[in-house]
Write a structure and sequence with these properties.
Layout: H1 2-35, E1 40-42, E2 50-51, E3 58-64, E4 68-73, E5 84-91, E6 93-101, E7 107-108, E8 115-124, E9 133-142, E10 153-161, H2 176-179, E11 182-189, E12 192-204, E13 211-220, E14 226-229, H3 231-240, E15 247-248, E16 250-257, E17 260-273
Parallel strand pairs: 10-13
Antiparallel strand pairs: 1-4, 2-3, 3-6, 4-5, 5-17, 6-16, 7-15, 8-14, 8-17, 9-10, 9-15, 9-16, 11-12, 12-13
């Protein structure tokens, strides 16, 4: 009786040891996959937003000049699902973005719901940017009933951060010296003051080819690299200021540079829609 029990106990210990070894191997494999996720890298320019696998997100990569440009997506199960790393080298102009896009007709603001973006990133390339560069939310708006023909198509930016350059430091808010146009006013949102600038670009590239269109800029006066951007609430503030918001075709997280080299690596990026 005792000998049988002892034999059974020994077998049980061996089984538990083997299970423990397998659990350690599985954990190491999971840790390895978490630290080294499968990354999908794009180098060729995309002609407008392109789908990212089975995720709800699309991406755009565009550049002029330079020797190497990439947008690397970390995958739907990594870092919030929309996270990406962008790199550029000796570029004349570069942009990379990931986020939501709708049909070219756009999503009516009345049905838009509440959209926000949670983000955290690291960056490199201070002091080398050209005369314009933006990090934040980007997209296009269609206003079919706008009385001002220049506002029938709008390019918009919610700028939460930027790279320093020869004309301004990384801590100095972007102004009309960069965006051109006119300051319309300010509002408080997401823990900071945003200054709103409206500009008109004549015969410039757009989602409809070369057009004359309007730009809306909301420039955060205290830059940050981590936080939440309440996209829908920005739209509401713009409407209070008399800006037209009809149908939104895109809301993406963007890095845009007008020159030189650098990188931006999102350690977390997620859009929430309800």
């Amino acid at each position: 009786m005792r000998r049988g029990t002892k034999k059974l106990t020994l077998i049980s210990l061996i089984i538990f040891a083997l299970l423990g070894l397998q659990a350690c191997k599985n954990k190491k494999l999971l840790d390895k996959n978490e630290k080294n996720p499968t990354v999908q890298t794009f180098q060729a320019q995309s002609n407008g937003p392109q789908t990212l696998g089975k995720s709800p997100y699309d991406y755009t990569l565009w550049y002029q000049g330079g020797v190497k440009h990439t947008l690397s997506w970390y995958g739907a199960s990594q870092r919030g699902g929309a996270a990406f790393k962008a790199t550029w080298s000796d570029s004349d102009d570069f942009l990379a973005r990931v986020g939501y896009s709708w049909t070219n007709a756009g999503e009516d603001i009345k049905n838009f719901g509440n959209i926000s973006c949670q983000f955290s990133y690291k960056k490199s390339g201070e002091g080398t940017a050209g005369n314009y560069n933006y990090i934040g939310i980007y997209g296009w708006i269609r206003n079919e009933t706008a009385t001002d023909p220049n506002e029938k198509l709008v390019e918009y930016y919610i700028v939460d951060d930027w790279f320093g350059n020869g004309e301004q430091s990384e801590k100095t808010p972007i102004t009309t010296a960069t965006t051109q146009g006119n300051v319309l006013g300010t509002y408080q949102l997401d823990g900071a003051t945003y200054q709103v600038i409206k500009n008109v670009r004549e015969d410039q590239p757009s989602i409809d080819g070369n057009q004359t269109f309007t730009q809306y800029f909301a420039i955060r006066q205290s830059p940050r690299q981590k936080g939440t951007i309440s996209i829908s609430e920005h739209f509401a503030q713009w409407q209070k200021m008399g800006l037209a918001i009809g149908k939104v075709t895109e809301s993406s997280f963007l890095v845009e540079r007008s020159g030189e080299s650098g990188w931006l690596d999102c350690t977390y990026l997620k859009f929430t829609k309800n």
